[in-house]
Protein backbone atom coordinates (compact mmCIF):
# COMPACT_ATOMS: atom_id res chain seq x y z
CA UNK A 1 0.00 0.00 0.00
CA UNK A 2 1.33 3.41 -0.92
CA UNK A 3 1.66 5.74 2.02
CA UNK A 4 2.99 9.26 1.79
CA UNK A 5 6.52 9.82 3.05
CA UNK A 6 6.36 13.57 2.53
CA UNK A 7 3.51 16.03 2.96
CA UNK A 8 2.02 17.67 -0.11
CA UNK A 9 3.06 21.31 0.02
CA UNK A 10 2.48 23.51 -2.99
CA UNK A 11 2.59 27.20 -3.78
CA UNK A 12 -1.14 27.20 -3.03
CA UNK A 13 -0.39 25.97 0.51
CA UNK A 14 1.50 29.21 1.17
CA UNK A 15 -1.28 31.33 -0.30
CA UNK A 16 -3.87 29.47 1.76
CA UNK A 17 -2.17 30.61 4.98
CA UNK A 18 -3.69 34.04 4.35
CA UNK A 19 -7.18 32.73 3.69
CA UNK A 20 -9.29 33.68 6.69
CA UNK A 21 -12.56 32.39 5.25
CA UNK A 22 -12.22 28.99 6.92
CA UNK A 23 -11.57 28.03 10.53
CA UNK A 24 -12.09 24.78 12.38
CA UNK A 25 -11.36 23.71 15.93
CA UNK A 26 -11.62 20.72 18.21
CA UNK A 27 -10.88 19.79 21.78
CA UNK A 28 -8.35 17.03 21.14
CA UNK A 29 -7.52 16.31 24.80
CA UNK A 30 -9.40 17.36 27.93
CA UNK A 31 -6.88 20.19 28.27
CA UNK A 32 -5.84 20.92 24.69
CA UNK A 33 -7.76 22.78 22.03
CA UNK A 34 -6.58 23.10 18.43
CA UNK A 35 -7.72 26.00 16.23
CA UNK A 36 -6.82 25.96 12.53
CA UNK A 37 -7.36 27.72 9.28
CA UNK A 38 -6.45 25.90 6.07
CA UNK A 39 -2.69 25.61 6.62
CA UNK A 40 -1.74 27.08 9.97
CA UNK A 41 -2.93 26.23 13.44
CA UNK A 42 -2.48 27.07 17.07
CA UNK A 43 -3.13 25.35 20.39
CA UNK A 44 -4.71 26.40 23.66
CA UNK A 45 -3.48 24.50 26.71
CA UNK A 46 -5.65 24.62 29.83
CA UNK A 47 -4.10 24.68 33.27
CA UNK A 48 -5.84 25.02 36.62
CA UNK A 49 -4.68 28.65 36.70
CA UNK A 50 -5.57 29.75 33.19
CA UNK A 51 -4.94 29.24 29.49
CA UNK A 52 -1.74 29.22 27.46
CA UNK A 53 -2.04 29.97 23.75
CA UNK A 54 0.75 28.40 21.69
CA UNK A 55 1.27 30.21 18.37
CA UNK A 56 -1.36 32.55 16.97
CA UNK A 57 -2.18 31.69 13.32
CA UNK A 58 -2.03 34.90 11.19
CA UNK A 59 -1.85 38.63 12.02
CA UNK A 60 -5.46 39.58 11.57
CA UNK A 61 -8.53 40.06 13.70
CA UNK A 62 -10.39 37.17 12.04
CA UNK A 63 -7.80 34.74 13.42
CA UNK A 64 -8.11 36.29 16.87
CA UNK A 65 -11.92 36.05 16.74
CA UNK A 66 -11.68 32.41 15.64
CA UNK A 67 -9.42 31.54 18.59
CA UNK A 68 -11.67 33.37 21.07
CA UNK A 69 -14.86 31.80 19.77
CA UNK A 70 -13.26 28.32 19.77
CA UNK A 71 -12.28 28.83 23.43
CA UNK A 72 -15.86 29.82 24.26
CA UNK A 73 -17.29 26.97 22.20
CA UNK A 74 -15.49 24.35 24.30
CA UNK A 75 -16.74 25.99 27.49
CA UNK A 76 -13.55 27.77 28.49
CA UNK A 77 -13.20 31.47 29.21
CA UNK A 78 -10.93 33.63 27.02
CA UNK A 79 -10.51 35.99 29.99
CA UNK A 80 -8.38 33.18 31.46
CA UNK A 81 -5.70 33.57 28.74
CA UNK A 82 -2.50 34.23 30.70
CA UNK A 83 0.34 33.39 28.33
CA UNK A 84 1.16 33.41 24.63
CA UNK A 85 4.04 31.07 23.78
CA UNK A 86 5.51 31.23 20.27
CA UNK A 87 7.51 28.59 18.43
CA UNK A 88 9.31 31.03 16.13
CA UNK A 89 9.36 34.51 14.69
CA UNK A 90 7.48 33.99 11.43
CA UNK A 91 4.26 35.91 11.05
CA UNK A 92 2.16 32.78 10.50
CA UNK A 93 3.01 31.88 14.12
CA UNK A 94 3.36 35.26 15.83
CA UNK A 95 -0.01 35.75 14.17
CA UNK A 96 -2.75 37.63 15.97
CA UNK A 97 -0.71 37.88 19.18
CA UNK A 98 -1.18 41.64 19.20
CA UNK A 99 -4.93 41.23 19.81
CA UNK A 100 -4.32 38.52 22.43
CA UNK A 101 -1.97 40.86 24.31
CA UNK A 102 -4.23 43.92 23.94
CA UNK A 103 -7.41 42.13 25.00
CA UNK A 104 -6.18 39.74 27.68
CA UNK A 105 -2.79 41.09 28.76
CA UNK A 106 -1.14 37.76 27.94
CA UNK A 107 2.54 37.51 28.83
CA UNK A 108 4.51 36.64 25.67
CA UNK A 109 7.37 34.13 25.26
CA UNK A 110 9.90 33.61 22.45
CA UNK A 111 13.67 33.26 22.10
CA UNK A 112 15.67 36.50 21.95
CA UNK A 113 17.24 35.33 18.67
CA UNK A 114 13.85 34.95 17.00
CA UNK A 115 12.48 38.16 18.47
CA UNK A 116 15.38 39.96 16.71
CA UNK A 117 14.85 37.83 13.61
CA UNK A 118 11.13 38.73 13.53
CA UNK A 119 12.07 42.42 13.83
CA UNK A 120 14.80 42.38 11.19
CA UNK A 121 13.61 39.78 8.66
CA UNK A 122 9.86 40.11 8.25
CA UNK A 123 8.41 37.44 5.94
CA UNK A 124 6.36 40.18 4.35
CA UNK A 125 7.56 43.77 4.07
CA UNK A 126 4.01 45.03 4.61
CA UNK A 127 3.46 43.11 7.87
CA UNK A 128 5.94 44.21 10.51
CA UNK A 129 6.52 43.06 14.07
CA UNK A 130 3.54 44.28 16.04
CA UNK A 131 3.95 43.26 19.69
CA UNK A 132 6.67 42.87 22.28
CA UNK A 133 8.08 39.74 23.83
CA UNK A 134 8.01 39.82 27.64
CA UNK A 135 10.11 36.75 28.42
CA UNK A 136 13.04 35.47 26.40
CA UNK A 137 13.25 31.70 26.69
CA UNK A 138 15.99 29.25 25.89
CA UNK A 139 16.88 25.57 25.98
CA UNK A 140 16.18 23.99 29.35
CA UNK A 141 13.64 26.59 30.48
CA UNK A 142 10.24 25.55 31.75
CA UNK A 143 7.17 27.73 31.24
CA UNK A 144 4.80 27.05 34.12
CA UNK A 145 1.20 27.96 34.79
CA UNK A 146 -0.69 26.19 37.56
CA UNK A 147 -0.47 22.44 37.00
CA UNK A 148 1.04 22.76 33.50
CA UNK A 149 4.70 22.92 32.50
CA UNK A 150 6.00 23.44 29.00
CA UNK A 151 9.58 22.24 28.48
CA UNK A 152 11.55 24.41 26.08
CA UNK A 153 14.04 23.09 23.50
CA UNK A 154 16.11 25.17 21.11
CA UNK A 155 15.68 23.78 17.61
CA UNK A 156 17.17 26.30 15.18
CA UNK A 157 17.21 25.77 11.42
CA UNK A 158 13.79 26.80 10.17
CA UNK A 159 14.57 30.12 11.85
CA UNK A 160 17.76 30.94 13.80
CA UNK A 161 16.01 30.89 17.19
CA UNK A 162 13.20 28.40 16.63
CA UNK A 163 11.85 26.49 19.64
CA UNK A 164 10.08 23.20 20.16
CA UNK A 165 8.06 22.11 23.17
CA UNK A 166 7.13 19.08 25.22
CA UNK A 167 4.21 19.15 27.67
CA UNK A 168 1.59 16.93 29.29
CA UNK A 169 -1.90 16.53 27.94
CA UNK A 170 -4.62 14.32 29.36
CA UNK A 171 -7.77 12.50 28.40
CA UNK A 172 -10.14 10.95 30.93
CA UNK A 173 -7.49 11.00 33.62
CA UNK A 174 -4.74 9.45 31.46
CA UNK A 175 -1.69 11.65 30.89
CA UNK A 176 0.42 11.70 27.74
CA UNK A 177 3.57 13.56 26.81
CA UNK A 178 3.05 15.66 23.69
CA UNK A 179 5.73 17.16 21.46
CA UNK A 180 5.33 20.19 19.24
CA UNK A 181 8.04 20.52 16.61
CA UNK A 182 8.20 24.27 16.17
CA UNK A 183 10.21 24.38 13.00
CA UNK A 184 7.79 22.98 10.43
CA UNK A 185 9.30 23.07 6.91
CA UNK A 186 13.07 22.71 6.33
CA UNK A 187 14.89 25.90 5.33
CA UNK A 188 16.21 26.70 1.85
CA UNK A 189 19.98 27.10 2.26
CA UNK A 190 22.51 24.37 2.89
CA UNK A 191 23.89 25.73 6.16
CA UNK A 192 20.41 26.09 7.70
CA UNK A 193 19.42 22.60 6.54
CA UNK A 194 22.41 21.14 8.38
CA UNK A 195 21.46 23.13 11.50
CA UNK A 196 17.84 22.00 11.10
CA UNK A 197 18.84 18.31 10.84
CA UNK A 198 20.95 18.61 13.98
CA UNK A 199 17.97 20.15 15.77
CA UNK A 200 15.77 17.30 14.57
CA UNK A 201 18.20 14.74 16.00
CA UNK A 202 18.32 16.63 19.28
CA UNK A 203 14.56 16.93 19.59
CA UNK A 204 13.95 13.28 18.64
CA UNK A 205 16.37 12.34 21.43
CA UNK A 206 14.35 14.50 23.84
CA UNK A 207 11.03 12.98 22.75
CA UNK A 208 12.48 9.52 23.47
CA UNK A 209 13.79 10.62 26.85
CA UNK A 210 10.34 12.00 27.77
CA UNK A 211 8.43 8.99 26.33
CA UNK A 212 6.46 11.20 23.97
CA UNK A 213 3.43 9.45 22.47
CA UNK A 214 1.65 12.46 20.97
CA UNK A 215 2.96 14.71 18.20
CA UNK A 216 1.48 18.04 17.34
CA UNK A 217 2.14 20.18 14.29
CA UNK A 218 1.66 23.90 13.86
CA UNK A 219 0.97 23.43 10.15
CA UNK A 220 -1.86 21.18 9.05
CA UNK A 221 -0.01 19.93 5.95
CA UNK A 222 2.40 17.88 8.06
CA UNK A 223 -0.08 15.73 9.96
CA UNK A 224 -3.32 15.68 7.96
CA UNK A 225 -4.28 18.38 10.41
CA UNK A 226 -7.67 19.35 9.04
CA UNK A 227 -8.73 15.70 8.65
CA UNK A 228 -7.60 14.91 12.19
CA UNK A 229 -9.57 17.85 13.56
CA UNK A 230 -12.67 16.75 11.64
CA UNK A 231 -12.23 13.21 12.96
CA UNK A 232 -11.84 14.51 16.52
CA UNK A 233 -14.97 16.65 16.27
CA UNK A 234 -17.12 13.62 15.41
CA UNK A 235 -15.16 10.98 17.27
CA UNK A 236 -17.32 8.23 18.78
CA UNK A 237 -16.58 7.00 22.29
CA UNK A 238 -15.10 3.70 21.03
CA UNK A 239 -12.67 5.40 18.63
CA UNK A 240 -9.03 6.02 19.52
CA UNK A 241 -7.61 9.49 20.04
CA UNK A 242 -5.97 10.08 16.66
CA UNK A 243 -3.22 12.23 18.21
CA UNK A 244 -1.93 9.40 20.41
CA UNK A 245 0.34 7.60 17.97
CA UNK A 246 2.87 5.89 20.26
CA UNK A 247 6.64 6.22 20.44
CA UNK A 248 7.40 4.24 17.24
CA UNK A 249 5.15 6.47 15.18
CA UNK A 250 6.56 9.58 16.82
CA UNK A 251 9.91 8.52 15.37
CA UNK A 252 8.27 8.00 11.97
CA UNK A 253 6.67 11.42 12.19
CA UNK A 254 10.06 13.05 12.49
CA UNK A 255 11.36 10.95 9.59
CA UNK A 256 8.99 12.97 7.39
CA UNK A 257 11.02 16.10 8.16
CA UNK A 258 14.26 14.24 7.44
CA UNK A 259 12.82 13.13 4.08
CA UNK A 260 12.07 16.73 3.21
CA UNK A 261 15.67 17.68 4.05
CA UNK A 262 17.09 14.83 1.92
CA UNK A 263 14.90 15.97 -0.97
CA UNK A 264 16.31 19.50 -0.67
CA UNK A 265 19.89 18.25 -0.36
CA UNK A 266 19.43 16.09 -3.49
CA UNK A 267 18.18 19.09 -5.41
CA UNK A 268 21.45 20.93 -4.58
CA UNK A 269 23.52 18.11 -6.09
CA UNK A 270 21.84 18.34 -9.49
ZN1 LIG B 1 7.96 29.43 9.90
Key traits:
270 residues, alpha/beta, Metallo-beta-lactamase, Chain A, 7-stranded mixed beta sheet, 5-stranded mixed beta sheet, 12 strands, binds zinc ion
What does it look like?
The chain has 270 residues and is an alpha/beta fold. The strands form 2 sheets. A 7-stranded mixed sheet has the order 1-2-3-4-5-6-7, with helices on both faces. A 5-stranded mixed sheet has the order 8-9-10-11-12. Helix content is 34%, strand content 24%. Helix 6 runs antiparallel to helix 8. It has a single domain (11-268), classed as 4-Layer Sandwich (Metallo-beta-lactamase, Chain A). Bound molecules: zinc ion. Zinc ion (ZN) is lined by residues 88, 90, 93, 158, 184. The site of zinc ion has 5 residues, from loops.
What topology does this entry show?
Blueprint: H1 11-16, E1 24-29, E2 32-36, E3 41-47, E4 50-54, H2 61-73, E5 81-85, H3 91-94, H4 97-104, E6 107-110, H5 112-120, E7 135-136, E8 142-145, E9 148-154, E10 163-171, E11 174-181, H6 190-209, E12 214-217, H7 225-233, H8 246-269
Parallel strand pairs: 4-5, 5-6, 6-7, 11-12
Antiparallel strand pairs: 1-2, 2-3, 3-4, 8-9, 9-10, 10-11
Helix pairs in contact: 6-8
Zinc ion (ZN) is lined by residues 88, 90, 93, 158, 184.
Amino acid sequence: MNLLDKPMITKDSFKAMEDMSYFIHSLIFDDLLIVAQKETNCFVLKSDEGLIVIDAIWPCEEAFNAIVSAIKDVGWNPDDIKKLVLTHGHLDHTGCGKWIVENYGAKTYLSKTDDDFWQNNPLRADILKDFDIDVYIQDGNVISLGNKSIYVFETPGHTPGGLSYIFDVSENGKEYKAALWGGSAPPMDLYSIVVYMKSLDYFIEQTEKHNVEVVLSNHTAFDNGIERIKYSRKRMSYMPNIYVIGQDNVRKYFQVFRNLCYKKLNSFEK
